[in-house]
Design brief:
Elements lengths: L1 E8 L5 E3 L2 H11 L2 E7 L2 E9 H13 L4 H12 L2 E4 L6 E3 L2 H7 L4 E8 L2 E5 H17 L10
Antiparallel strand pairs: 1-7, 2-6, 3-4, 3-5, 4-8, 7-8
Length: 149
């Protein structure tokens, strides 16, 4: 289960270090193999999936009808997908330049657990998104999810 928010730093080569608390889990679950891509629904962040979770996404995409919208979604999601590996020694992963540039990542990033994947945000964009999300939740509190937490 991937959860929590982590401040991380990207070096000049685009490498990020996955926090130690996730490394063992990722190596057990998928031998460190991951897929990184952009989110067509939210173009300001990257998504980093353990390979096993990414394969579930691919399987679901195969079942979708090929409408114009679905084809566009697949083209973006799959077209930007890059498979890689988390370095076992240092827990590092290289964010490909095309992905870093597409979402405008700078040096200070946020790695955000989202159950089956991570989101990777530029720190300043993340803070703006959190402010907007909190405001939207407060405005629509009556329509919030139907469970207790």
């Amino acid at each position: 289960m991937l959860r929590g928010t982590n401040n991380i730093t990207m070096d000049d080569k685009g490498r990020i270090a996955i926090p130690a608390r996730y490394r063992e889990l990722l190596h057990e679950e998928c031998n460190g193999a991951v897929v990184c891509t952009i989110d067509p629904r939210q173009p300001d962040c990257l998504m980093l999936y353990p390979l096993s979770e990414w394969e579930v996404i691919e399987s679901e995409l195969k079942k979708q009808s090929n409408t114009k919208q679905v084809l566009a979604f697949k083209r973006v999601l799959l077209g930007f997908a890059v498979e890689g590996e988390i370095d076992k020694k240092n827990g590092r992963f290289v964010l490909p330049p095309v992905l870093r540039e597409k979402v405008g990542l700078e040096k200070q990033l946020m790695l955000v657990g989202q159950l089956n994947k991570f989101e990777i945000w530029d720190q300043s964009v993340w803070q703006s998104q959190m402010d907007a999300d909190i405001e939207a939740i407060q405005a629509d509190a009556s329509e919030l999810m139907d469970f207790n937490f």
